[in-house]
Write a structure and sequence with these properties.
Blueprint lengths: L1 H21 L5 H9 L2 H10 L8 H34 L17 H25 L7 E5 L2 E5 L4 E7 L2 E6 L3 E5 L3 H8 L3 E5 L2 E4 L11
Antiparallel strand pairs: 1-2, 3-4, 3-7, 4-5, 6-7
Helix pairs in contact: 1-2, 1-5, 3-4, 3-5
């Protein structure tokens, strides 16, 4: 059901975006094609933003600006490529000549607004899904030194990333070495854990005090 809702959201969002494209003198199929070009940028924001650490605001802002610039450049390139394909298809119809590419489509502000709108909508859909369909607590299994370890989420105190190795620190002074990237751990552990640094994910219930950088 959760996946169906998410898929439905993206379908509706693309259809709504297609209506904007149709106002620019594109057919429905062409509008649909151009609208899907914005999906890579929106999905990049969805998976990239949670991986940015805000413990250092300057670095976080720098990362956001860099990511935004890269996404906009990629989207403009994809839109120009899509436009060339549409021109190629229309070239076979003498009565169906395509005018120049509307400037608004390659306007960085327009691209950012569309991608932000898609991402914000997806974010709030995600929040609604979590409230409507709360996930049941389940154990977490992972490999550590050729052994399969199974823990309950509440047993994990924090996860620390050290280059290509992560250290899972659990109750009773237990420590397990693992090679799963910390970004994947953040997804598996969910909202009951908080990423306080690019190298640390902490169990919210295990936090006893906050001081400076501790």
């Amino acid at each position: 059901m959760k996946q169906l809702i998410i898929i439905s959201y993206w379908i509706i969002a693309i259809l709504l975006l297609s209506t904007i494209m149709m106002s620019l003198d594109y057919s429905f199929s062409e509008s649909l094609f151009l609208s899907t070009i914005f999906l890579p940028g929106a999905l990049t924001v969805k998976y990239l933003l949670p991986r940015i650490s805000f413990s250092n605001r300057r670095e976080a802002i720098k990362s956001i600006i860099t990511a935004t610039f890269g996404i906009v450049i990629a989207e403009i390139s994809l839109l120009l490529f899509a436009y060339s394909i549409i021109c190629e298809i229309r070239s076979g119809y003498d009565h169906y000549i395509l005018s120049e590419l509307p400037v608004i489509l390659i306007n960085p502000i327009f691209i950012v607004v569309i991608i932000v709108a898609l991402s914000v909508g997806n974010y709030y859909i995600g929040i609604w899904i979590k409230k409507r369909f709360p996930s049941k607590k389940c154990s977490i299994s992972f490999s550590s030194e050729r052994k399969i370890i199974t823990l309950q989420p509440e047993e994990i105190l924090y996860v620390e990333s050290n280059d290509s190795v992560t250290l899972v620190v659990a109750t009773s002074d237990r420590k397990f070495r693992n090679k799963t990237p910390i970004s994947q751990w953040a997804e598996r552990l969910g909202d009951s854990f908080i990423r306080i640094h690019r190298s640390y994910i902490v169990n919210r219930k295990a936090i006893t005090d906050i001081k400076g950088y501790t």
